[in-house]
Design a protein that fits this description.
CATH class of the largest domain: Alpha Beta
Helix content: 25-40%
Number of domains: 3
Strand content: 15-25%
Strand order of the largest sheet: 10-11-12-13-15
Structural class: alpha/beta
Radius of gyration: 23 Å
CATH architecture of the largest domain: Alpha-Beta Barrel
CATH topology of the largest domain: fumarase
Number of strands: 15
């Protein structure tokens, strides 16, 4: 019987993480394309256009779909009769595959894993350890599912234990309605029902890697209770009107996947994990014949979209001259093309700025009348100015917003998803604006950045403050100077 080697498993994992960093699964592209074709809200349709164009650019350029290249999720089905030469633990072997995959010179992937989750939060530097789960199964092969899971969607994971007579559909719909847009819809919901708390969540995660077949299910109709539940949840969630990026629209989920398991008679555990517009996963099987090979999708899978047409009604904005009149002219949902100088800054940079203000120290950058972009980009390669640079979830900056606006004179913030009431109140109070860059279009956004240089807090790595020069960077107005939010207006308008 052929021997499955450590080297083959390591190489296969490394190649898989590279592969999924720039190739969407074909079924996802087909589902997103179909959703784009039928979308009725122009703002949501334009957001999906950016996602699809970005996806095709990444497939050609072999660069990450999203700047958040995710934690490394690996699920292994280990055949009981498989012959191996493993000397190290599976965790160590899979960590080595992850390390090699994320540190590849021609396409370095962003390391996002911190070693100590509640104290120093020091970055591991290579995205290890991976999140490994293992099943011992019959057979003589090793089956591996790898997935790169971004923080924005992972942070929206939910779990509950319902009464046996409880409604899974009601709980899911209520949960999705409360999640906001930080998980970057349209995407997929993975739902695990049964087992216990950890089993239900594991089922939900595994469900996300199943093929997207909602369109086929709608055409042929359900054949069992699970399929009935999938259809019911998909219809009800899409009827919420959340839409792409929370802008309002007819498609919020592309599919709903459900896996179930026996459970205690007194319990109905339910786990739910969303997958975002940067859905990334691949499956391979090792049988001793060598490392896995991965076949790129056909470029014909992507629709022909001209962003120039999609942005034909966009308004050009000079961010170096943000007058009160200009800011007050913006309307929620409006598409803008930004040109000029903007600065970057995420959680760590905001906290450090607040600490400096508390000590009465001068900040290393003058933000008066300026724009700040909530982003942690991928490292540049070759002649790139910057690597993929999509937005991070803006609610994490909410608690800093009033102080920063008040003490620095900042006038424009750019990120993704909705803002909380505390931030919206601060935006209205200081007559600032909040803009949305499309999550899942990181490579496309990076092409609008013409220069980038770190100017402060370089020790924070991806969270350092950079000065960016941008040209026609596409965004939508999220919150205007009066505190009107598209994430409230849009879904309310499209709710059924």
């Amino acid at each position: 019987m052929p021997i499955i080697t450590e080297d083959d498993l390591i190489q296969s994992i490394a190649d898989a993480f590279q592969f999924i960093s720039y190739f969407h699964p074909p079924d996802f592209i087909r589902a997103m394309s179909a959703a784009w074709e039928k979308e009725e809200n122009p703002s949501a349709k334009q957001a999906m256009s950016q996602i699809l164009v970005n996806s095709r650019m990444c497939a050609i350029g072999r660069r990450p779909i999203c700047q958040d290249t995710g934690s490394a999720n690996i699920h292994i089905k280990y055949g009981m009769q498989a012959q191996t030469n493993f000397k190290r633990s599976l965790q160590e072997i899979c960590d080595e595959g992850t390390r090699q995959g994320y540190l590849r010179d021609e396409n370095p992937l962003r390391a996002s894993v911190v070693v100590d989750p509640f104290d120093s939060r020091q970055n591991s530097g290579d995205n290890t350890p991976c999140m490994l789960t293992v099943e011992m199964v019959a057979g003589d092969t090793i089956e591996v599912e790898v997935a790169a899971k971004g923080g924005g969607s992972e942070n929206k994971s939910k779990f509950t234990t319902l009464n046996p007579s409880g409604s899974v559909s009601d709980w899911v719909v209520q949960s999705v309605e409360s999640m906001g847009a930080g998980w970057c819809p349209p995407g997929i919901l993975g739902i695990g029902i049964g087992g216990n708390a950890d089993k239900a969540m594991a089922l939900a995660k595994q469900a996300l890697s199943e093929p997207i077949d909602m369109a086929d299910l709608i055409r042929r109709g359900p054949s069992n209770r699970t399929e009935e539940l999938r259809l019911e949840i998909a219809e009800r969630v899409n009827a919420l009107g959340i839409g792409a990026q929370g802008l309002g629209g007819i498609t919020t989920v592309l599919d709903v996947k459900i896996k179930s398991f026996p459970t205690h008679a007194a319990s109905l555990p339910v786990g739910m994990i969303p997958n975002c517009a940067a859905t990334r996963h691949a499956h391979f099987t090792l049988d001793g014949s060598g490392a896995a090979e991965f076949t790129p999708p056909d470029l014909k899978d992507w629709p022909e979209i001209l962003l120039d047409q999609a942005s034909a009604h966009a308004i050009k904005v000079d961010v170096d001259n943000l007058t009160d009149e200009v800011l007050q002219s913006f309307e929620p949902g409006q598409t803008l093309l930004l040109s000029g100088t903007i600065y970057t800054g995420r959680d760590a940079a905001h906290k450090r700025m607040i600490d400096m203000l508390d000590r009465g120290e001068e900040l290393p950058v003058d933000l008066k009348g300026r724009a700040i972009y909530y982003v942690g980009p991928v490292d540049a390669v070759g002649d790139e100015v910057i690597g993929p640079a999509g937005p991070t979830t803006s609610t994490r900056m909410d608690k800093f917003t009033d102080r920063i606006l008040n003490d620095t004179g900042l006038k424009m913030m750019i990120g993704k998803a909705e803002r909380g009431d505390i931030a919206i109140d601060a935006i209205a109070k200081h007559k600032a604006v909040y803009l949305i860059a499309v999550g899942g279009a990181a490579y496309l956004v990076s092409k609008a950045i013409k220069s980038a240089k770190p100017i402060a807090f370089q020790d924070l790595g991806m969270e350092a403050i950079y000065e960016l020069k941008v040209e026609d960077m596409p965004v939508n107005v999220g919150v205007d100077t009066s505190g009107n939010s598209i994430h409230k207006i849009g879904p309310a308008a499209w709710r059924k």
